[in-house]
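Figure caption, in words: inputs first, then the predicted bound structure.
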Amino acid sequence: MTSSILEELRAAVIEGDTEKSMTFAKKALESNIPPLDAITKGLAKGVKEVGDLFSEGEVFLVELVMAGDAMKAGMSVLLPAIKESKTEMTSPGKVMIGTVQGDIHSIGKDIVGTLLEADGFEVVNLGEDVASDVFVEKVKEHKPNILGLSSLLTATMPAQKDVIKKLKTAGLRGDVKVIIGGAPTTQEWADEIEADGWAGDAVSAVKLVKQLIKS
Ligand code: B12
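Bound structure (cobalamin present):
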């Protein structure tokens, strides 16, 4: 039962079928499948497969867009369920997240944000295609403990470096820990740009945030 629902979620994304994605996301919740499993073992498998086919030239941009939409449709059912599982009463800290300038990929960053919220963190999500100067202004305004920068394109990774540089110039680097993520990023890249941490998935991102808040 569980495996067939996860398989349908994967298929819904590959087929770019938003309705099916939402229907099986609801079925997953009714069947007590943990919503994060429905995302990682269902929807995300499908989106990864479409991404791989896209890079091999096997599918076109339109299919990539449809897969992204179907993933988001399923997530619109599953993410609220993750938030509802929130346990902590007092916030352990404030995290600001956003996708860097030139990059409109939102899915991974939103999963990270939701898992942090479920763990009690106050999350300010600045959205996608956020200019470096806007990150700096918003850090001034909201004073987060942690700033998380997402980048899914090799071409937009330098924007993560740029934000860190601009925080330094504004005299704010000491006030906020910066973490980075997104499929093409690595721990080596994080070290090179002097970020305070890197995580390869949302669960590790939450662990990293907790570690950094403690220190
Ligand atoms: C869906 C998708 C899209 C959708 C995005 C929809 C949306 N609202 O997000 C659409 C169709 C819009 C899209 C557009 C494009 N895309 Co696209 N896309 C993808 C795809 C298939 C999946 C991305 C995704 O959502 N993955 C699922 C999530 C759960 O994983 P994730 O994002 O990696 O996030 C996890 C971790 O990385 C981490 N994480 C993420 N962010 C952060 C932040 C922090 C702080 C931390 C700690 C951790 C963290 O935690 C997350 C959860 O576990 C990938 C393929 C892939 N395998 O990544 C291509 C991919 C990223 N896209 C690609 C490309 C080329 C494009 C386009 C340029 C295509 C075009 N010709 O127009 C455009 C770019 C537009 C732009 N300016 O941004 C390439 C990038 C190649 C590269 N390395 O540069 C990829 C890799 C596809 C490929 N194999 O060629 N895309």
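The two ends are 43 Å apart (CA to CA).
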